[in-house]
Each structure stands twice: as structure tokens, then as C-alpha cells.
Amino acid sequence: MLTKEEADYLLGLDKTLSNPNQIIDLRNKKNRLDLISHEDSEYKFWLEITTNQKIILKTSIHHLESNSFVGLLRIDYKGGHHNPVTIKETLPEYLKPYADKWFKPTEPHMHIFVEDYKPLAWAIPLSDTDFPVKDIKNPSDLNELIISFANKINLTSIIQIQQAIL
């Protein structure tokens, strides 16, 4: 299991696409981009963008380790979630008001890595974060979301996005 310091370190690393020709094709239900960091080549990551009938859009970054992965950050639009009830010493102060909070599918939220909990068990309403894309209202919001999420995880590569035909 990762510590908070290790998770912060991994999120803070500059990342690039392992294959610069990877394309996000919004016609697909799932897009996964493999990422690497030239600052610390021991680590590999993947960024995943998922759409389905239940969750309109979910973006996440995971740290890969051997054959396993640990979620570092995820944003859900139109997906429900229930935060843990138990407050452990490792829970940051800013998340404590959200203990036992139920997120309805109408409340976009950001899942955050918290040490000593299951990966991405904790979430905070997007409205209470500095993330610029608070909701997805139309297809043009998807580009802004992807670019904003890339900035949040320090992805420095140029991202190619293939739009869905509506």
C-alpha cells in the first residue's frame, strides 16, 4: 500500500504518453493511455476515460506496479458513491466533513487517494475543489475536461482527441 507522500510524489511527477501517437477516441466506451515519467522511470501509469449508460464520464489515473494498480485520482460525472463512515488518523482534515456522505448520480465528485483506505474510497464534491470542469453539460465540455485532467496529473504530452459523431 502507498503512503500519502508516495501518492503525492507519483501525482506530481511529469508524465508523457508512452506512445506519442495514442489517440483518445470518444466513440469508444473505454480509452486507456499508457503513461511514463522521465523524471522517475521506475513508475508506469495509465489514464483511463470511461463512458457508459451508468456513468457518463469517469476519468482516472492509476499507478501500475508489477501486475497490480493503485488508483491515485478519479473524477466521476453521473456516478453514485458512498464515502467511508470511519475516520482514521490518515484522513486529511478537509475530507472529514464528507464522512458517510452519499453522492447521488447528479453530483459530480473527485475521488482522492487516502492512505490506509481502499484505493479511491474517498470523494469530495467537484464543487468544493479547484478543478475547473464542474459538470458535463454538452460534448464540447469533454475536451476541456480531458485537458484539465491532463494538467492536474502533470501530463505534458499533446493529447489527440477523436470526437464522437453525434
Structure overview:
This protein is an alpha+beta fold and 166 residues long. It has one domain. Helices cover 13% and strands 32% of the residues. The chain is built from two helices and eleven strands. It has helices at 4-12, 140-152, and strands at 16-17, 23-25, 30-36, 44-50, 57-65, 68-77, 81-82, 102-103, 109-112, 122-125, 160-162. A hairpin with a 6-residue loop joins strand 4 (44-50) and strand 5. It is globular, with a radius of gyration of 16 Å. It starts with a helix and ends with a strand. The model has no long low-confidence stretch (mean pLDDT 86).
pLDDT average, as an integer?
86
Supply the number of structural domains: 1
Radius of gyration (Å):
16 Å
Q: How would you classify the quaternary structure?
A: single chain
By DSSP, the count of extended strands is 11
Widest sheet, order of strands: 1-3-4-5-6-9-10
What's the order of the H and E elements? Answer: HEEEEEEEEEEHE
Helix content: 10-25%
Q: Given the C-alpha coordinates, what overall shape results?
A: globular
**Uncertain ranges:** none
- Main β-sheet, in a few words? 7 strands, antiparallel
| Percent in strands | 25-35%
Global structural class: alpha+beta
Number of helices: 2
Terminal CA distance: 42 Å
SSE blueprint:
Elements: H1 4-12, E1 16-17, E2 23-25, E3 30-36, E4 44-50, E5 57-65, E6 68-77, E7 81-82, E8 102-103, E9 109-112, E10 122-125, H2 140-152, E11 160-162
Parallel strand pairs: 2-11
Antiparallel strand pairs: 1-3, 3-4, 4-5, 5-6, 6-9, 7-8, 9-10
